[in-house]
């Protein structure tokens, strides 16, 4: 698979991550938010690994940095949803 094919695969994985974000944000239940979070993490992780793999197989060295950033931010997301309002009395 050439590097252009790897870029297309990475963009498809990032599209999956965007879908997970929208799915989680629009959910009203905790289960849907957790599912959206897992989809987001999965998509960003696969996209990051794909960019790193493309850089190793002969792409540009910057692609590895972008792949590492996707992994960092993808695994750093810990919650999706609205913050609970705190009561002050």
Low-pLDDT parts are none
Average pLDDT value? 83
Number of helices: 3
Radius of gyration: 16 Å
Termini gap: 62 Å
From N to C, what is the helix and strand string? Answer: HHH
Shape: elongated
Helicity, in percent? over 70%
Question: What structural class should be given to the helix and strand makeup?
Answer: mainly alpha
Strand residue content: under 5%
> Would you report the number of β strands?
0
In this structure, how is the largest beta sheet organized? none
Commentary on this structure:
By secondary structure, the chain is an all-alpha fold. Helix content is 74%, strand content 0%. It is built from three helices and no strands. The N and C termini lie far apart (62 Å).
């Amino acid at each position: 698979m050439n590097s252009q094919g790897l870029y297309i695969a990475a963009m498809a994985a990032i599209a999956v991550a965007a879908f997970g974000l929208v799915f989680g944000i629009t959910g009203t239940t905790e289960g849907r938010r957790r599912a959206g979070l897992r989809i987001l993490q999965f998509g960003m992780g696969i996209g990051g690994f794909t960019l790193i793999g493309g850089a190793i197989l002969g792409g540009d060295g910057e692609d590895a940095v972008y792949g590492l950033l996707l992994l960092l931010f993808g695994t750093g997301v810990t919650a999706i949803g609205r913050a609970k309002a705190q009561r002050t009395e």
